[in-house]
Amino acid sequence: MRITFIGGGNMASAIISGLCKQPGQQISVVELHEDKRASLQAEFGVTALATLPARFAADEVVVLAVKPQALQAVCQQLAPRLHGALVVSIAAGVRLDALSRWLGSPRIVRVMPNTPAMVGKGVSGLYAAADVGEADRRTAESIMQAVGITSWLETEGGIDDITSVSGSGPAYVFYFIESMIEGACQVGFSEQEARALVLGTFEGAVELARQSPLPVATLRTNVMSKGGTTERAIARFEAEGVKAAIIAGALDCRARSVELGDLLSKDGE
Ligand SMILES: NC(=O)C1=CN([C@@H]2O[C@H](COP(=O)(O)OP(=O)(O)OC[C@H]3O[C@@H](n4cnc5c(N)ncnc54)[C@H](O)[C@@H]3O)[C@@H](O)[C@H]2O)C=CC1
Ligand SMILES: O=C(O)[C@@H]1CCC=N1
Question: What would be one Pfam family of this protein (predicted)?
Answer without folding.
Answer: P5CR_dimer
